[in-house]
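Sorry to interrupt, but I need a hand with the structure work. Please put the record directly below this note.
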Amino acid sequence: MSSAASIAPSTSGLHAPARGRTKKAEQDVTVTDPTLVKRAVKAAALGNAMEWFDFGVYGYLTATLGHVFFPTASSSAQVLSTLGTFAAAFLVRPIGGAFFGPLGDRIGRQKVLAITMIMMAAGTLSIGLIPSYGSIGVWAPVLLIVARMVQGFSTGGEYGGACTFIAEYAPDKRRGFFGSFLELGTNAGYVAGATLATVLITTLPSDSLYSWGWRIPFLIAGPIGLVGLYVRMKLEETPAFQKLAQEAEDKEKSFPKPKIKEMFVGNAGAMATCIALVLVFNVTDYMLLSYMPTFLSEELHYDATHGTIILIGVMLLMMVVQLPMGMANDRFGHRKVIGGACLGFVLLSVPALLLIQAGSTWAIALGLAGLGLLLVGFTSSMPSTLPALFPTKVRYGSLSVGFNLSVSLFGGTTPLIAAALIAGTGNLMIPAYYMMGAAVVGGVAAWRMRESAGRPLPGSPPAV
């Protein structure tokens, strides 16, 4: 069976006039194949899991990596240097998005997602092979930055492509549910990375951890990447892209080559909305999942292992709630879910951080859990909301550019900026204020955007 079965025979095998309509009111309808939808969702989620496995490992091994690659610096300088290297990858993400996004609109989503999977695996694997500072001196952190940039460049085409791939396969009335699997993969990868890092830190002597133990999580990326590549190579192209290609073929024209300016001209409002939504999504996401482990250990002097275990529990809770929240998006709409999460961050960020600063295990767990549940309002919504902002012709490219531009400016820099502001001001409430400001921006964007839940993607017929 093809990726989308026809209601009646058609030349493309993908779409056909709906029955019971007059010729003038004829409308194409895409009938999705549940088996292929599930396969597409699994393949996209696996890539996202791999990406965040790396982020989880990097975030939870920050102190260890600082000792390995910046041994001559003070403890705080090691943390800032490692977080700076983490942020460096985000400088090239917009470049990767501008390269892979239009490429995905021209040659197909499936092919580009296979390429990004290879690059992601290679970049992560190479980190595990870099000699220590003690062996090659300053070249060690230089090579670390290069590897992170390879990761950043490939990731620039990963998330936008994965969102587009799932959204173009899913039926309109279940796009929120299927899209939420993408961020379920995020949490699964993060939990796996955090758990492995914690096991290594708690079971290995310091000398073993610094000499070879820290490499293990990064070396695992090679086999995972091969599995992910195999899964993605077995996929068919999305129905929406096939329809676009078929229309070009029927008109005996070459497939149109998207241009960067097309992503902005006529789509300026959608691009601004995308950047604002991604801002609140990623500031809160990176603050909780990437910076909080460092905040707990470096600023509150809380036991790093206990803090990691608590955050792993929070992520498991988020995974339990993720799919029901995806269904809530389909039922109530993206605007209400995203707007409610933004309001929650405005009202509850300060109380949550005060609980975290109280220092007891239960207070820290309650504060982090509250932020995690609010974050699910974004993780369950964005994979289905963002692709619906743009038409098929420029969807992959526009989403990749807008997403990565916002992540680079606001998301990936969040841990570094938060740490620097706290170091400069001594105010431990900085993370709460930072999230509240982002929530205001996201709330305005959610209020102004067009509701897309349950409706066809722009430029695509209804999908059932």
About this structure: The mean pLDDT is 82. Strands lie at 4-5, 31-32. Residues 183 and 379 are 6 Å apart (CA to CA).
